[in-house]
Amino acid sequence: MIPHERAVIADSLWTATANDSTTRPALTQDLTTDVAVIGGGYTGLSAALHLAEAGTGVALIEARQPGWGASGRNGGQINPGLKDGPAGIIAQFGPAMGTRMIALSGGAADLVFDLIARHGIDCDAVRPGWVRAAHTPKALADLHALAADWQAHGAPVDPLERAEFERLTGAQGYRGGLIDRRGGNLHPLNYALGLARAAEARGARLFGDTPATAITPEGDGWRVTTPQGRIDAGRVLICTNG
User: Fold this and answer.
1) Which of 52, 199, 228, 236 has an alpha carbon 20 to 30 Å from 46's alpha carbon atom?
2) pTM exceeds 0.90 for this model
3) 106 Cβ neighbours under 8 A, 6+ residues apart
4) Long-range contacts: 225-231, Cβ < 8 Å, 24+?
């Protein structure tokens, strides 16, 4: 970003087809709540929504507007899992933590599609699966081993030979690959805006153009200071710069 210039979302497919132009107001008062959420991307918006659904008082502040950052300008792919497969995760973090990480990352796509369905979020979501391609024999062997690894943990991940890969994708020149049937795609900005609406509908308070300038202990909780107001909260979730 050019120094001293205010960053903006450039014209894009996502901004041109956004289905909500709501601008959240800046925080201009002091308020008290159970949880303060800093950051209006997917993490912050989902946290605010889940907290509000549980009956917890929540106020979210975003330095720009909800969905302004990477959450509103990515490719829209919903790809479950982590870089390593289940075996690698367990080897690195141990059975207890590794199993939890596998369940959390592997179930991420299910969570996204569940939120979309439960809250009626209009974001062009589709779930045809996620295909990964292999261009060498070694890459094919690695992907087929990864598919078997996920299958051993109950995930709908299937190896693809060349003919099936070409039938599914129309792409030629690859040796095959795998398909993770948990994956899909959506309109990333409209998904973020839908999460914001759902959170507000359940009682969360959202503020835009409100950067946090300080977080300090206050009594038994915390104080979040902003340019025009303060939030006193029992807990603070920092959901920024993902």
Assistant:
1) 228
2) yes
3) 80, 81, 86, 150, 153, 155, 182
4) 226/26, 226/27, 226/61, 227/26, 228/26, 228/27, 228/28, 228/29, 229/27, 229/28, 229/29, 229/30, 229/31, 230/30, 230/31, 231/27, 231/30, 231/31, 231/32, 231/33, 231/36, 231/59, 231/61
Residue 72 DSSP label: G
Residue 167 above 60 pLDDT? yes
For the domain made up of 13-74+205-238, the CATH class stated in words is alpha beta
Return the domain boundaries, the chain.
Answer: 13-74+205-238, 77-185
Q: Is the pLDDT of residue 7 over 60?
A: no
Residue 237: closest CA among 98, 30, 56:
56
| Whether 47 contacts 37, CB under 8 Å | yes
Question: In 72-187, where does DSSP find H-type helix?
Answer: 86-93, 95-106, 108-119, 137-151, 162-169
What's the pLDDT score for residue 11?
77
Q: Distance between CA atoms of 225 and 242, rounded to whole angstroms?
A: 21
Strand ranges across the sheet with 214-218? 205-207, 58-61, 31-38, 230-238, 221-225, 214-218
Which tens digits make up the pLDDT trace of 201-216? 999 999 999 999 999 9
Count CB neighbours of 119 within 10 A: 16
Q: What is the pLDDT of residues 67-80, one digit of tens each?
A: 999 999 999 999 99
